[in-house]
Structures are given as C-alpha cells and as structure tokens.
Amino acid sequence: MTEAALIRIAQALERISPPAAMAPDFNAADAFVWQVEPDHLEPVAKVSRIHVDLLVGIDRSRDTLLENTLRFARGLPANNALLWGARGMGKSSLVKAVHGVVLDQGLNLKIVEVQREDLPSIGRLLALLRDSNERFLLFCDDLSFSHDDQHYKSLKAVLDGGVVGRPQNVVFYATSNRRHLMPRDMIENESGSAINPNEAVEEKVSLSDRFGLWLGFHPCTQDDYFQMVRKLCDAYGIEITDQIMQAEAVEWAATRGSRSGRVAWQYFTDLAGRKGVQI
What we know:
Elements: H1 3-16, E1 31-35, E2 40-43, H2 59-73, E3 81-85, H3 91-104, E4 110-113, H4 122-130, E5 136-140, H5 151-159, E6 170-176, H6 184-193, H7 197-200, H8 202-209, E7 213-217, H9 222-235, H10 242-256, H11 261-275
Parallel strand pairs: 1-4, 3-6, 3-7, 4-5, 5-6
Antiparallel strand pairs: 1-2
Helix pairs in contact: 2-3, 9-10, 9-11
C-alpha cells in the first residue's frame, strides 16, 4: 500500500472520529462560536449587538427573557427559550442584547453560537462545557427543519439531555420564524398521508414543546416602526424632523413590502450614510 493511500485512510479515520477538542480558555472572551473539523470554540472579541433600549414593541418578550437569563446567570433554575415569529422583529438582536445587559450587571455568562448544521456535534460541545465553572448560553439563530432533516434529534441532547442530563451550567436559546420549527404544509401533508396522523409528526412538533419559554414576535405597527427609527436617530445624534423622517421611512418600507425592526435599521443606515454619521 502506498504512502498516499495510507495518508488518505488516516484522514478518513480522523473525519469519522475526530480527536477530542482541547479545553478552551474561557477567559479569552465573553462570546464564542462553535466550530467543527476540528472541534473548537472560537473567541469573539466584539459581539455585534445593539442596546436593549433600542428594541421597540417587544417589551413583554424583552422583560421575560431578561429575567430568565438573569436567574440563570445567578445560578438559579431557568428555562430554554424559543423566540419565534415575524422576520426582522429583533429575535436574535434581543438574545444578544440581553446577554449584554447581564454582563453590564457584573454577572459572568458566556454566549456560544451554534450553527444549525453543526447540531450533530452538540454532544461533543456539551462535554466541553459540562465540567467548567462558567455558565453558558447556547444560541442557535434561525432554527428550522425540513422534511428529511434529522438534525432535530441532536437538539434533544440540549433540551432533554438523555440519560446524562443537560448540564446545569447550560441553557439553550433559539430563534425561528416557525412556532413548531417545521413548515405548516409539511405537518399537514405528513398527517394526511400517515396511518396514524397524530403520531406522524409528533416527534418533530413536540420538539418545540421542550422549550420552557415560547416568546412570540409579531409584525410591528406603523407607530412602532416610526419609534424604532426615532430611537436610532436620537441614540446616534442624527437630527431630522418627524415629518421628513416619517415620509422617508414610509417610502423605504414600501419598497420592501413590509415594516420591521430590520427594515427600520436599513433605512436608518441609509440615513446615517447620507448625514455622514458613523454607526
């Protein structure tokens, strides 16, 4: 057997059974991104987030998630959370903003972002975190599953923990546009074609039931949309009259076919650029 063939075999074996990840330096940062091949936690020097006070129209979800996160950071019991609903209404921004508030209060909490496609490796990540004295908020943005997607089974290791149990120093937050993490037409199609419709999709649908907190986000009103833009203008010192701002913001939203926090930020970014203001 040639040397090249032996090298290929060794590389294939490493992919099948990668070496154990080295213990990370959790003092390197307050935020990390979980990477695979090879497994490691990549420190994030500066988290991309906005202040929680700039999030408009989601007061109840903000207060509930903040209280849950503060309890967890203080070593008290807390629930996993699913933030679901309308696009661009601040679901992921709220998770990052709440983490910032916790840090501002002098509490120690690490946030670890996990990509949906890396969920099969979640058991290895939990093994790294389990014996640490730190507390961790695992965060998966835009979580959803298609018809033949088996990644949802890996997620149960975080939500339920199996025989070993979920580490007491880990809580899991996810955002999704779907309340049940799978398309409604998929649920209806599988129910209609199954011998036992109630059991056909129970395993996937019940995944969302494993989140202790469900926080819904709904499309914003025009007044909320204007308030979002006004708060951003005030926070960055941009002077513009309400009449001009509202006319421009309405036109901007009309070109995108919707109003949301994301659209408000996009209009504000354009406005700041025209005004010569750094953000």
